[in-house]
């Protein structure tokens, strides 16, 4: 809360005594609180606050606000919104918006066809989680989708998927596109494209050399034209987009340590972008669309793979890469020590283990190729090429005075050793002055850039907070490796999990996956047919599906929204991670019980519960081994992963019944409480109210301590007991300032607050016995409006502060 | 060891019979430089006209061996009585201790450490280690100053000797391509700094080449590369762009986009490729890479001249061409790659010079420039002094008269 602007009112909720209990509190998705109008649509409230700040008239009922913090550039071509309507079910979250008059040139697929790999980025507006919230409709009405004056045009909410294929297997790629109808705007958009199907006019944005080479093939097979976008343009556009729009996209990787870097968008340029594909391009980027290819090298990913294939008979790049992990390059490379008889060459700073000559040792050996381990060869090759790229990149960065070098392209594949080697080279040659940074979506720069080149999707206006990355939680992981298939279907997921449980850890071999063409990146959007191909997935990129939620807004009162870090607990610290790992693991059975109970304890829910438990434990185990597997890991992310996992096994709200019970109990005693409060003096009441807020906050039904407490007495007793324990000073204690602001000091009569914004993130006693009395008090003191603002943890915390709670 | 006793000495102040030997033991090759007294020495009029009392007319010999065949080298040294000079010199270095175990030869390269015991055991001599970079620079400086037409450019098959103005020699970048590559910025006599290097060097070419082609020697591999076509193995810009140039960024369709990148996309195994093509591709990859990194380093320090030395080059026109093209391409013609005729012997020469730096090398410079025809091989562009078989030992390249 330190990052909030100084305002006593806002600080109230910042009394973070509840931090110890927070774990499950954060989880509470939904207050089953049916007080219409108090729990409001986050976004609207923000707009409202803004408007009203400038003198607008507040209304109790949330009408469509007329301004929006994301300004949609009017200069861009706009969607044709006439007769726009929500397609299908109004109950859906972020439903697809039907734009019957929009011409079909909003394609949602872009391709980057490189020498070795084809990268696909596609956008889907598909929704797979129907919710049954009853207020959805009114919210949507409030959002005023059909009210054209709200924003110049809406961005379609949806998902950005990332998939790759080997270029040599381009037919698989074509099949994939065809099966998903991506070239027609996607299957999801049924009706509105049906009339233009296969009339040959569809256009797909494409980049990479293959966009030229395979243009005819696409025409012939899919009846689409490839609209070629310049490769460098795309790379840069893609990189700029990622660095600006995705939080924690960039990271450093030194000596096995991954560290995410928060890039200040205003301090992004200039940088050197090194794209390592088959060959390597080095681009100096000075701004949006301002760049120059300054260098490159022909020793790149293609060299590694090509030479590697010839030398090891590996069948795939990934296989070769995996081999390298078991290699020892000392049998292949001539080290300084080999030349100097085991000594360092100190004078010029070369240690005995420095490679003097890559592959140099094979000169003096009598062995033939077959006498060497493929593992060693692969590692030696990898080191040679990575190091060389690092060195040339550094020299180019130096030349232009660039401190930051971002490495992208499919050579890297999140491979720790590759990144370490490149980082080492940059570090070594720059003497620590320059920094090698990597991108989580490294392989998709070009494809994303091509995607961005569509004129009408409006994605380039996106803000960091509007994209939420989600990982498929259904496929279990253990020990850093994927052990399960990426299954979209719930029943398949469950039955796979059951098999997994049955066989225990026996299942260590990779299970049959989709045809080898896609590596099931992120979205695991693979054709559902299962070929016999076995593949290990050591090199799987940990890229999730980007969920685009245009309605997300940054909470405007943050002192420094850019640097705001919603995670109060960073799990990069291993002991911290271990602690939370233990807490979550121990709590898991209890959670499963509750989840199952929330669904009425049916057999089906039991099966799902077991599957959930198994899947989530597997993810936890994986995260223990590789904390950065899903990007930067904070406690909030971890909790969100759990939530996501629950949702994937279709547990909408595990705490539903408990919350309901608590709400009822709390409401029953509310009037007594209010009477008690009203009998107090002003000053005592104020303190009691705040104590009450804190006390109510400990009602956390995920915490065992609270459950016990609950069994010992009635809710009001517990509440009072807790309140009495809240002795000042609190850990964060702004009460005196608050009191002065509320009651004034001496003769000074304070003016009442015009508006108050209350953050609540729970239900039951927390809200009813804690926040409601406070809101009531504020209103009584002349505050015109007091808006409890539900901080749902459906999204990452930053987003929670902003918006779109699911049940508003 | 009795052969060591056969030296006639003429007095310490006038060691005419000097036959000193210096050795550079690298990771792949051993380079020898030794001096032999010219038989016509006594009749040489120069001797008196210059009026130097301790001058010797003679010849500098250059020889090389593979490091793996170090025993051949040891045999060669004893067979040619190269240690004669050592005994004599031991006299003027340490007169009071003229015993065998005090005798030494100057040596550089990593092997000077590694094989020190072997020399002691087999030949009874110590190796006095000279710093590798010192020797490289001293050797290069000596060659550039003392030997006329030592340096040349090589572009589009045209070899062109460059007259170096001694007063305008520094600074320059010296790139020594041995097993690995060292890049040394030279600012003046004895003033230098190793600024960079790469592990992708001659050892990589040979090592990878050996694994890929089963060639038995470096020279065989080089030979193969002459007849190869790298387009079979490399992915060219045209391969990606369907035969088109990527003109926007100045890449022609024949530019290599990815070395060995073609080996990815078709189903050929190693045996399906001609060793010639593989060798060619490898050579281009490594030469180009060295050229590029060298240029980038030259650029960093504002150096216009890059001299390439070391045994990787071997006067190979294709190698030199590739390096030159790389430097030319990346520098847009601003920097120039230059090669040294005695490319492989920089270190050994430097070690040789270290015997008595102050009196000798000045003299040698003065004298050697007077005999360009003997010292060099003229301007015959087809002459490749080092193109002979690697193990042909007494490859005598240069005569240096000393008055």
UniProtKB/TrEMBL annotation, chain A:
Residues 588-799 form the Damage-control phosphatase ARMT1-like metal-binding domain. In the C-terminal section; belongs to the damage-control phosphatase family. Phosphopantetheine phosphatase II subfamily. In the N-terminal section; belongs to the type II pantothenate kinase family. Pathway: Cofactor biosynthesis; coenzyme A biosynthesis; CoA from (R)-pantothenate: step 1/5. It is an enzyme of class 2 (transferase). Its cofactor is Ni(2+); Mn(2+). SUPFAM superfamilies: Actin-like ATPase domain, AF1104-like. Gene3D superfamilies: 3.30.420.40, 3.30.420.510, AF1104-like. It comes from Salix udensis. GO terms for cellular component: cytosol; nucleus. Residues 65-76 have a biased composition (Polar residues). Its EC number is 2.7.1.33. GO terms for molecular function: ATP binding; hydrolase activity; metal ion binding; pantothenate kinase activity. This is Pantothenate kinase 2. Catalyzes the phosphorylation of pantothenate the first step in CoA biosynthesis. May play a role in the physiological regulation of the intracellular CoA concentration. Functionally redudant with PANK1. The phosphatase activity shows preference for normal or oxidatively damaged intermediates of 4'-phosphopantetheine, which provides strong indirect evidence that the phosphatase activity pre-empts damage in the CoA pathway. Hydrolyzing excess 4'-phosphopantetheine could constitute a directed overflow mechanism to prevent its oxidation to the S-sulfonate, sulfonate, or other forms. Keywords: ATP-binding, Coenzyme A biosynthesis, Hydrolase, Kinase, Manganese, Metal-binding, Nickel, Nucleotide-binding, Transferase.
Automatic annotation (TrEMBL), chain B:
It is an enzyme of class 2 (transferase). GO terms for biological process: coenzyme A biosynthetic process. One of its GO terms (cellular component) is cytosol. Coiled coil: none annotated. GO terms for molecular function: ATP binding; pantothenate kinase activity. PANTHER family: PANTOTHENATE KINASE, PANTOTHENATE KINASE 1. This is pantothenate kinase. It comes from Salix udensis.
